[in-house]
Amino acid sequence: MATHVEDDLQHVLQNRAIIKRQANLPSEPIWLNQQHTDIALPLSSTTVFDEPPIADASWTQSVNVVSVVMTADCLPILLTDKQGSCVAAIHAGWKGLADKIVSKTIQAMPVQSSELMAWIGPAISVRQFEVGQDVYDAFVNQNIENKRFFHAEPQQKAKYLADLPGLVRFEMQNLGVSQIYASQLCSFENQTEFFSYRRDGKTGRMASMIWIEN
Protein backbone atom coordinates (compact mmCIF):
# COMPACT_ATOMS: atom_id res chain seq x y z
CA MET A 1 0.00 0.00 0.00
CA ALA A 2 2.92 2.38 0.63
CA THR A 3 4.87 4.51 -1.84
CA HIS A 4 7.77 5.21 0.53
CA VAL A 5 9.25 1.74 1.18
CA GLU A 6 10.87 1.18 -2.24
CA ASP A 7 8.14 -1.07 -3.57
CA ASP A 8 7.49 -0.82 -7.29
CA LEU A 9 5.27 2.25 -7.68
CA GLN A 10 3.12 0.67 -10.36
CA HIS A 11 2.49 -2.33 -8.14
CA VAL A 12 1.52 -0.04 -5.26
CA LEU A 13 -0.90 1.89 -7.47
CA GLN A 14 -2.36 -1.39 -8.74
CA ASN A 15 -2.81 -2.61 -5.16
CA ARG A 16 -4.56 0.62 -4.22
CA ALA A 17 -6.86 0.30 -7.21
CA ILE A 18 -7.69 -3.29 -6.21
CA ILE A 19 -8.51 -2.20 -2.66
CA LYS A 20 -10.69 0.64 -3.91
CA ARG A 21 -12.62 -1.79 -6.10
CA GLN A 22 -12.89 -4.71 -3.67
CA ALA A 23 -13.83 -2.56 -0.68
CA ASN A 24 -16.18 -0.50 -2.85
CA LEU A 25 -14.61 2.71 -1.59
CA PRO A 26 -16.68 5.82 -2.33
CA SER A 27 -13.60 7.90 -3.18
CA GLU A 28 -9.83 7.77 -3.31
CA PRO A 29 -8.46 7.52 0.26
CA ILE A 30 -6.60 10.59 1.47
CA TRP A 31 -3.15 9.14 2.07
CA LEU A 32 -0.88 10.79 4.64
CA ASN A 33 2.87 11.29 4.86
CA GLN A 34 3.21 9.66 8.27
CA GLN A 35 6.23 10.73 10.30
CA HIS A 36 5.24 9.85 13.88
CA THR A 37 3.86 13.34 14.44
CA ASP A 38 1.03 14.55 16.68
CA ILE A 39 -0.83 16.09 13.73
CA ALA A 40 -4.48 15.18 13.09
CA LEU A 41 -5.92 16.70 9.91
CA PRO A 42 -9.58 17.57 9.40
CA LEU A 43 -10.87 16.41 6.02
CA SER A 44 -13.87 17.51 3.99
CA SER A 45 -15.42 16.70 0.64
CA THR A 46 -13.37 19.52 -0.92
CA THR A 47 -10.02 18.49 0.61
CA VAL A 48 -7.33 18.10 -2.06
CA PHE A 49 -3.57 17.81 -1.57
CA ASP A 50 -0.90 17.97 -4.28
CA GLU A 51 1.27 15.73 -2.11
CA PRO A 52 0.38 13.56 0.88
CA PRO A 53 0.37 15.95 3.85
CA ILE A 54 2.55 15.33 6.88
CA ALA A 55 0.21 13.98 9.55
CA ASP A 56 -0.49 10.79 11.46
CA ALA A 57 -4.25 11.01 11.81
CA SER A 58 -7.25 12.42 9.99
CA TRP A 59 -10.90 12.89 10.85
CA THR A 60 -13.99 13.93 8.97
CA GLN A 61 -17.70 14.65 9.22
CA SER A 62 -18.11 14.52 5.46
CA VAL A 63 -19.84 11.66 3.71
CA ASN A 64 -17.74 9.48 1.37
CA VAL A 65 -14.38 10.90 2.50
CA VAL A 66 -12.00 8.03 3.29
CA SER A 67 -9.55 8.43 6.18
CA VAL A 68 -6.67 5.98 6.00
CA VAL A 69 -3.49 5.14 7.90
CA MET A 70 -0.71 2.69 7.08
CA THR A 71 1.03 0.47 9.63
CA ALA A 72 3.51 -2.37 10.01
CA ASP A 73 3.63 -2.85 13.83
CA CYS A 74 2.32 0.54 14.97
CA LEU A 75 -1.27 0.83 16.13
CA PRO A 76 -3.96 1.52 13.55
CA ILE A 77 -6.91 3.03 15.43
CA LEU A 78 -10.31 3.70 13.86
CA LEU A 79 -12.90 5.87 15.61
CA THR A 80 -16.54 6.69 15.06
CA ASP A 81 -19.24 8.25 17.14
CA LYS A 82 -22.31 6.11 17.80
CA GLN A 83 -24.36 8.09 15.29
CA GLY A 84 -21.78 7.60 12.55
CA SER A 85 -21.50 11.35 12.02
CA CYS A 86 -17.75 11.71 12.61
CA VAL A 87 -14.92 9.24 11.99
CA ALA A 88 -11.14 9.17 12.33
CA ALA A 89 -8.10 7.05 11.54
CA ILE A 90 -4.94 7.25 13.67
CA HIS A 91 -1.42 5.89 13.19
CA ALA A 92 0.16 5.54 16.63
CA GLY A 93 3.68 4.30 17.13
CA TRP A 94 5.28 4.81 20.52
CA LYS A 95 6.56 8.28 19.58
CA GLY A 96 3.20 9.52 18.37
CA LEU A 97 1.48 7.94 21.34
CA ALA A 98 3.89 9.62 23.74
CA ASP A 99 3.19 12.94 21.97
CA LYS A 100 -0.57 12.41 22.52
CA ILE A 101 -1.61 11.86 18.91
CA VAL A 102 -4.61 9.85 20.15
CA SER A 103 -5.75 12.44 22.68
CA LYS A 104 -5.23 15.30 20.24
CA THR A 105 -7.28 13.56 17.56
CA ILE A 106 -10.14 12.76 19.93
CA GLN A 107 -10.12 16.28 21.33
CA ALA A 108 -10.20 17.74 17.81
CA MET A 109 -13.25 15.74 16.81
CA PRO A 110 -16.45 17.80 17.31
CA VAL A 111 -18.24 15.08 19.27
CA GLN A 112 -18.31 14.02 22.90
CA SER A 113 -15.63 11.43 23.65
CA SER A 114 -18.20 9.40 25.56
CA GLU A 115 -20.03 8.96 22.25
CA LEU A 116 -17.01 7.44 20.52
CA MET A 117 -16.30 3.82 19.71
CA ALA A 118 -12.73 2.73 18.95
CA TRP A 119 -11.14 -0.23 17.19
CA ILE A 120 -7.45 -1.11 17.57
CA GLY A 121 -6.17 -3.10 14.61
CA PRO A 122 -3.31 -5.59 14.24
CA ALA A 123 -0.12 -4.29 15.83
CA ILE A 124 2.97 -5.58 17.57
CA SER A 125 2.05 -7.32 20.82
CA VAL A 126 3.59 -6.88 24.24
CA ARG A 127 5.29 -10.27 23.79
CA GLN A 128 7.42 -8.92 20.93
CA PHE A 129 7.86 -5.20 21.55
CA GLU A 130 11.11 -4.73 23.46
CA VAL A 131 12.01 -1.12 24.23
CA GLY A 132 14.66 0.75 26.18
CA GLN A 133 14.67 3.06 29.16
CA ASP A 134 13.89 6.10 26.98
CA VAL A 135 10.51 4.71 25.96
CA TYR A 136 9.69 3.68 29.52
CA ASP A 137 10.59 7.15 30.80
CA ALA A 138 8.58 8.91 28.09
CA PHE A 139 5.36 7.30 29.32
CA VAL A 140 5.97 6.88 33.04
CA ASN A 141 7.09 10.51 33.41
CA GLN A 142 3.72 11.52 31.97
CA ASN A 143 1.67 9.23 34.19
CA ILE A 144 3.04 6.94 36.87
CA GLU A 145 0.15 4.57 36.23
CA ASN A 146 1.65 3.76 32.83
CA LYS A 147 4.20 1.58 34.67
CA ARG A 148 1.76 -1.32 34.49
CA PHE A 149 2.18 -1.46 30.70
CA PHE A 150 5.93 -2.12 30.87
CA HIS A 151 7.32 -5.48 31.92
CA ALA A 152 11.00 -5.51 32.85
CA GLU A 153 13.19 -8.01 31.02
CA PRO A 154 14.87 -9.98 33.83
CA GLN A 155 17.96 -10.83 31.80
CA GLN A 156 18.56 -7.36 30.37
CA LYS A 157 19.06 -4.14 32.29
CA ALA A 158 16.88 -1.20 31.26
CA LYS A 159 14.91 -3.30 28.76
CA TYR A 160 11.14 -3.69 28.87
CA LEU A 161 8.31 -5.33 26.99
CA ALA A 162 5.86 -2.54 26.20
CA ASP A 163 2.12 -2.99 25.82
CA LEU A 164 1.15 -0.39 23.21
CA PRO A 165 -2.49 -1.54 22.92
CA GLY A 166 -2.77 -1.37 26.70
CA LEU A 167 -1.32 2.14 26.79
CA VAL A 168 -3.71 3.45 24.15
CA ARG A 169 -6.71 1.74 25.74
CA PHE A 170 -5.85 3.36 29.09
CA GLU A 171 -5.44 6.77 27.45
CA MET A 172 -8.78 6.54 25.65
CA GLN A 173 -10.57 5.37 28.78
CA ASN A 174 -9.21 8.39 30.66
CA LEU A 175 -10.72 10.58 27.93
CA GLY A 176 -14.12 8.99 28.39
CA VAL A 177 -14.07 6.47 25.54
CA SER A 178 -15.57 3.29 26.98
CA GLN A 179 -16.40 1.23 23.92
CA ILE A 180 -12.96 0.02 22.82
CA TYR A 181 -12.49 -3.07 20.69
CA ALA A 182 -9.26 -4.71 19.57
CA SER A 183 -8.27 -7.27 16.97
CA GLN A 184 -5.91 -8.98 19.47
CA LEU A 185 -3.74 -9.86 16.46
CA CYS A 186 0.06 -9.48 16.54
CA SER A 187 1.61 -8.14 13.35
CA PHE A 188 5.03 -9.50 14.36
CA GLU A 189 3.93 -13.07 15.06
CA ASN A 190 1.54 -13.57 12.15
CA GLN A 191 3.97 -13.70 9.25
CA THR A 192 1.47 -14.95 6.67
CA GLU A 193 -1.05 -12.16 7.22
CA PHE A 194 0.76 -9.00 8.30
CA PHE A 195 3.78 -6.85 7.52
CA SER A 196 6.09 -6.17 10.48
CA TYR A 197 8.88 -3.60 10.50
CA ARG A 198 10.33 -4.96 13.73
CA ARG A 199 10.41 -8.49 12.30
CA ASP A 200 11.56 -7.82 8.72
CA GLY A 201 13.06 -4.33 8.58
CA LYS A 202 12.37 -3.55 4.95
CA THR A 203 8.72 -4.39 4.47
CA GLY A 204 5.39 -3.24 3.10
CA ARG A 205 2.52 -1.52 4.88
CA MET A 206 -1.08 -2.41 5.68
CA ALA A 207 -3.90 0.11 5.31
CA SER A 208 -6.77 0.70 7.73
CA MET A 209 -9.63 2.84 6.43
CA ILE A 210 -12.86 4.35 7.67
CA TRP A 211 -15.54 6.52 6.07
CA ILE A 212 -19.14 7.66 6.43
CA GLU A 213 -21.49 6.17 3.88
CA ASN A 214 -24.57 7.86 2.47
UniProtKB/TrEMBL annotation:
Q: Which InterPro entries match?
A: Cu_polyphenol_OxRdtase, Cu_polyphenol_OxRdtase_sf, Cytotoxic_necrot_fac-like_cat
Keyword list (alphabetical) reads: Hydrolase, Metal-binding, Transferase, Zinc
> Key word Zinc present in the record?
yes
- Record flagged with keyword Chloroplast: no
The chemistry this enzyme catalyses reads: adenosine + phosphate = alpha-D-ribose 1-phosphate + adenine; adenosine + H2O + H(+) = inosine + NH4(+); inosine + phosphate = alpha-D-ribose 1-phosphate + hypoxanthine; S-methyl-5'-thioadenosine + phosphate = 5-(methylsulfanyl)-alpha-D-ribose 1-phosphate + adenine
Which Pfam families does the record associate with it? Answer: Cu-oxidase_4
Q: Which Gene3D superfamilies does UniProt cross-reference here? A: CNF1/YfiH-like putative cysteine hydrolases (3.60.140.10)
NCBIfam families per the UniProt record, alphabetical: peptidoglycan editing factor PgeF
Q: Which family does it belong to?
A: Belongs to the purine nucleoside phosphorylase YfiH/LACC1 family.
- Name the chain's protein: Purine nucleoside phosphorylase
Organism equals Thiomicrorhabdus immobilis
